[in-house]
User: Which sequence fits this backbone?
C-alpha cells in the first residue's frame, strides 16, 4: 500500500529538545506537525502543559484510520485532550492547547487547526487572519515606542515590555478559542468543541505531490529545510525583537536558540 515519504524533517526547541512543545507526526499514512501552546502565567500548574497536549494529539493523529474525515479526526483529538484535562480536574477549553497540520493520505487532504505554514508543490496555502495578529502588532507598537525613546535592543530582548503589555490581550484571546468572533479567530485543540469553520481542509492533487508543513516557529514557509533555516537566521539577525513584518507575540530572548520552538516536515505524497 502506498505510503507518505519523508524527505526532510526538523524539530528544534527554543531552549532544548526536552522542553520543545512542537511534535512531529510520522506515520505511513499521516504526517505533520503539532504545536503545543507556550506556557502562560495564568496556566494551572497542575494541568497538562502545551507539550503534553501536543504529544497526546500527535499520538491520536498518527493512529488515524484511512477512512477518517477531518471532522472525525478533530473530534478524536479533542476527546483525548479533553480526557487529559478531566483527569487533571481542569475544565475542557480552560487549560493549555495545541494547533496542528497534517497530511492524511486516505483522504488526500491536508487538515489544519490553528497556525501552521503549508506549501503544496511550492504554493503557499494562505493562513486565515487570527487574533494573534492583533496581539503581535500591539506588542510591536510598545517595543517601537521604547526604541524611539532610546531603549537598546539588547535590554528589550532581556526584559520585553511589549510581551508584558499584551498579557491581558493574550488571556482574552484564550477566552475566544474556537468561538466565532469576527476578526479574532483563534483555532486550537483544547478539549472543547472545534466548529467545522475552524478546521482548514486542503484537497491534494491526484498526482504525486510534495507538501511542506512547518510550525510558526519559522517566520515563513519555505520549500526546503535549508531555506527555512536561512530565512529564520536572517530574520533573527536583522530583527531579534520580532517586530518587523510579520510581527510575533514574543521575541528572541538571550540564551535561547530562537524566538520559539520550531518544526519542519517535507514529504512526498504518492499518486492517488
Assistant:
Amino acid at each position: 500500500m502506498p505510503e507518505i515519504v519523508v524527505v526532510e524533517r526538523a524539530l528544534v526547541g527554543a531552549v532544548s529538545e526536552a522542553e520543545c512543545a512542537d511534535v512531529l507526526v510520522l506515520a505511513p499514512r499521516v504526517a505533520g506537525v503539532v504545536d503545543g501552546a507556550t506556557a502562560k502565567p495564568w496556566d494551572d500548574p497542575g494541568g497538562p502543559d502545551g507539550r503534553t497536549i501536543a504529544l497526546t494529539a500527535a499520538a491520536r493523529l498518527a493512529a488515524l484510520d484511512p477512512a477518517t474525515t477531518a471532522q472525525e479526526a478533530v473530534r478524536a483529538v479533542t476527546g483525548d485532550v479533553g480526557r487529559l484535562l478531566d483527569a487533571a480536574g481542569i475544565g475542557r477549553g480552560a487549560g493549555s492547547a495545541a494547533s496542528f497540520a497534517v497530511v492524511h493520505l486516505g483522504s488526500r487532504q491536508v487538515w489544519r487547526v490553528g497556525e501552521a505554514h503549508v506549501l503544496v508543490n511550492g504554493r503557499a496555502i494562505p493562513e486565515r487572519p487570527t487574533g494573534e495578529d492583533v496581539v503581535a502588532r500591539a506588542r510591536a507598537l510598545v517595543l517601537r515606542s521604547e526604541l524611539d525613546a532610546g531603549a537598546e535592543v539588547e535590554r528589550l530582548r532581556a526584559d520585553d515590555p511589549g510581551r508584558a503589555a499584551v498579557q491581558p490581550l493574550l488571556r482574552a484571546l484564550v477566552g475566544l478559542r474556537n468561538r466565532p468572533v469576527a476578526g479574532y479567530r483563534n483555532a486550537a485543540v483544547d478539549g472543547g468543541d472545534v466548529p467545522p469553520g475552524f478546521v482548514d481542509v486542503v484537497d491534494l492533487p491526484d498526482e504525486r505531490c510534495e507538501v511542506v508543513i512547518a510550525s510558526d516557529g519559522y517566520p515563513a514557509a519555505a520549500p526546503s529545510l535549508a531555506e527555512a533555516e536561512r530565512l529564520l537566521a536572517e530574520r533573527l539577525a536583522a530583527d531579534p525583537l520580532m517586530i518587523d513584518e510579520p510581527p510575533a507575540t514574543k521575541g528572541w530572548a538571550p540564551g535561547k536558540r530562537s524566538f520559539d520552538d520550531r518544526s519542519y516536515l517535507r514529504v512526498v505524497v504518492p499518486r492517488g
